Prior knowledge:
It contains 23 helices and 36 strands. By secondary structure, the chain is α+β, with helices and mostly antiparallel strands. Helix 9 packs parallel to helix 14 and helix 22 runs antiparallel to helix 23 (856-874). The longest helix is centred in the middle third of the chain and has 49 residues, at 551-599. It is elongated, with a radius of gyration of 32 Å.
Amino acid sequence: MRFSTIFLLILSTLGGPSVFAESTKKMFNRYEFETIGVYSVAETSQGEPEPLRPQGVAGALCGVHGNALFVAGGTCFLEEKPWRGGTKTSFDKIGLFLRQPDGSILETKTIEKLPKPMGYAAVAQTPNGVVCLGGETADGPVDDAFVLRYDEKSQAVSLPVLPKLPSSRTAASAAVVGNRVYLLGGQGKDGPLDEMISLDLAEPGSGWRIEKNLPKPLAFAVAVAQSNGETSCVYLFGGRAKTKDDSVTNFSNSVYSFNPKTGIWKEETPLPTPLAAGCGAPQGIYSVFLFGGDDGEFFNANERRLLAIDKEKNSETKQKLVEERIRLLEEHQGFKRDVFLYNTITKAWTTAFELPQGSQVTTPAFHWSDGKKDQIVIPCGEIRPGVRSTEINSFRVFGQSHFTVLDYGVLGGYLLAMLGLGFLFMKQEGTGDFFFGGGRLPWWAVGISIFATTLSAITFLSVPAKAFAEDLRMSPYNLGILMVAPIVIRYYLPYFRRLNLETAYDYLERRFNRLVRYLASGLFIFFMVTRIAIVLFLPSIALNVATGIDVYFCILAMSIVTIIYCTMGGVEAVVWGDVIQGFILVAGAIVSLAVLIVCTDGGLAGFLQTSFEAGKLHAFDFRFDLTQPVFWAVMLGAFSNNIITYSSDQTLVQRYMCAKDEKESIRSIWLNAFLAVPVILIFFPIGTALFTYYRTHPDRINADLQNGDAIYPLFIVNGLPPGVSGLVLAAVFAAAMSTLASNINSASAAVYADFMKIWFPRFSKRFPVAISQTAGIVVGLLGLTFALLLASSDIRSLWDQFNTFLGLFTGPVGGLFLMGIFSKRINGVGAVVGLIGSFLTVATFQAYTPISFLYYGFLGMTSCYVYGFVVSLFVGGPAKTVAAQPENGRSTG
Length: 893
């Protein structure tokens, strides 16, 4: 049976493809466009009978610094239009608009002026002011460079000077990536330019740097800095150019991206139509809006009329041509009204909506927050030939959610069921029951629990997000467990099972000393808190995207439910909860993948063709590059991080000790290992399918998406029918809660056995379960606190962040177990020095080198071993040995 037929059968159980066709009727983005202020430089009349009219400006130097909006300089025609003999006037006035605490905008007079009357400079908004580069006066292009700043305390405007440009230019474009501003193209004294130069704003004294030239000369293009999924790039849209050999101006529909890291220009998907002199701004994490512009059709027609007038010898015919040209100019209906939306990942264009009137050209667009939400501001500009607008317009986009009452019911029912598990297993007779389930849990349940614990919300959300934004180079990572399972079973498991350990770190005390146990267990507990924070944060994003509920409230709700059910029911509630959640999350993933592929234009064939042509199926990169996820780095990271996790993580070691005996523990490890393969076959393709789905349906993506890891929840909410959305979103919570519950339970085991039982033996013996439950609550609350802090940070990919934590905190601990199992020479002093030294080594590599996070685990583990071995050679003291005797059973008291 064909794969596509299987998908269709799955869909038929959900109502068939016709159900999903309803999604085309949904509104996925809502747009607001309003006038928030007016600005004029003078009042004039066009003829005696007409009343005085305010005059706006085009080519003004505009932007925002703090709560101040600048509209500086610019040009307009004070008397007649240019075709009636009028002349363009340039201004040096600085208009200042201040955002008030209530969100309103107040125009403020300022005595500061620009260095000279000018306009058409390239501007770029930065935290330290509005950078203004080049421009023109009545005498032509200039080479000025300065910054517009507003000091809120002194309420003063300042214009600090930057190094002058290498040559004069006007109508150039500018964008900022990091601390560096890039100036692209423009019009010089001798024609259009293809130059790109840059300046480090942190060290402007270093001067302008020559960058790689543009693919072609362009002026009046739109430059925007936006992420390409891996790094911030400079995108250049449209533009125009006229050389000496051209009879009319060439308007471009080209789109190019420049990667500052590689220094390479790349051609992107062309604009739907040629555009120049428009304005654009980035939105969210992957979107760019372009607001109208001039498509050149009328502009070129006017150029041809001027050529015809020039060539015409008959005065009467020439006069008619002149009058016809004037009539057409004065009847001009405005520039293009289309607002185009470009996604830098899918490379797809869509028309978001039409402006209520013609677009504002030769003016920039930029972000300005009103304290609640960012808005894109477009001030003044030219709206028809020779006519300047006085309006300062604001544009906002809102992502729409389609989460229904039925979905809420499904999700709420799932959460209540999880709470019920806590009550079902509430009776605990001792820590053996609370932490190990009395050793009576079946091997298959333990294996599924290990699988569900490792398959967290990080996998469920971040892996599809990474595959959507990049490619499949990280997909072999999940094969790491197949490589390490035999090693864990042969060398590590006997020690964990046969020594009747209370925690994994109990072994380190027996092999080295108590200090090593304290350090390793403390690092594990700290890592659990950070992991809980990440795993709490991810599903909270999902719920926030799905329902619009505040993300902080989501974190609170998720953490409280999880803390209650896992601290009440102990490890039995955790394991059986994992079994239920494992089935839910895999089922949810399969349904999502099926729908995504079927709803991609062309179905399975379209999915394969689109993803192949876009390079999204690229899985093996055999270059030698320490900064990229090349094959060697992925496999090394997969091996080292999995050996660290499966040999030193109390969360998993605790599972080994929950099974009846060693043979059943082995079965559970292999079951988990073989279940890891479907993760590759489902979750990475989900990310690829998200790409093909949104590439073929570009109007359905949330243009205001602020976090890349929310791309899958976005589809869950808006791409699936009611009820199914709630079920699949419950799978997200299943992935999160299985990991959270395991982390809290295992961390509480470490707190109780590695610290409380040693420090307060009488008290711990009297109230073992109560202390364990209290420890779980404290760990959960600490994770909750870090999750709230994480929600206010800017992290591009939580997959990368989690693996960074993994290498920094667990790599050195993995090294302790490595030296304990495989070396008889290393002693306690060497172990402590190795642990500290490896931690500093990984931290140094993170801070001062660009190497990929995939190496962190390997660095931490191996450096710990090497430091420990070398120190033990020079420091006296015998090394302990611990024999793993045949298993005699486990205490359940």
